Amino acid sequence: MTIAQGLRAGLIGLGSMGRHHARVLAGLEGVELVAVVDPMGDKNGWGQGAPVLSTVEELIALGIDYAVVACPTALHEEVGLQLAEAGIGALVEKPVADTVDGARRLVEAFESRGLVAGVGHIERCNPALRSLRQRLEAGELGDVYQVVTRRQGPFPHRIADVGVVKDLATHDIDLTGWVTGQTYTSISARTVSKSGRPHEDMVSAVGQLSDGTMVNHLVNWLSPLKERFTSVTGEKGCFVADTLTADLTFYANASQATEWEAVQAFRGVAEGDMIRYAIAKREPLLVEHELFRDAVLGKSHDICTLRQGLRTVEVAAAVLESAATGITVDLSAYPAAQ
Is the peptide bond before 39 cis (omega within 30 degrees of 0)? Predict the structure, then answer.
């Protein structure tokens, strides 16, 4: 393969996410969608006309540079190990694996072979969150005090194999660490299951990051209100990102002098200016594919690595452990993801 010829890519899984990956891959500059794998075939025509294969082995035999893994979470480890052993890079849908041990095995398999591999934590490509991260890195908020996320809505019938923690909360765990540049040091959580399924469908979690920032997550499948809310509060105000609309708003702290001696020692805040930023709103999935393509070509490293994806799985496991035991789980001994 040469850069002039373009990259040869494959897709594994044509489900609710796989069909969107197929659409983007089919039109991605510098990439050829060679084939897709789905044992169920392509009765809906989602494969964009690419040959539909029954096994990963058949795809590997065609000679590809990388594959997008969009099969059910329980199969990520098995499929990922096949690709790594064949020397093929992979973009794995989130979460990277169903278990912490499985995620660790995938990290070792790809890293030991020097292969480019990433996790499809799509919120990293949301325009509002990319802008928020840049502004935090530039120090526009000063010291960060708290990150709050709310991710709720009706139950998605596409989900059969995991609960709300592994499916939805992993978005918030990853984006929180990514926008702040910090890691989780502790987490405490409670879950409930009200929909009659074996997995949890609501979670509320409180955590702390490595710099002392407090974190709150509320995630559920039990609300008719669909909400994707992220706020970061700090020394100079509060950023609010709506990732449904890709809007980012800043609420500034206003200095307000007080003449009342009794409360002069209290350092409070006052309502200041509100700014809603104009942001170019490109499709997050297209941005994700462009960044991964560039990483495979050695042009960029702006992807969620498997090791970072492992960290998210570790925190999600700690959320479930805390909910089951009623104790706060200490994550400070876990190695920080690079």
Answer: no
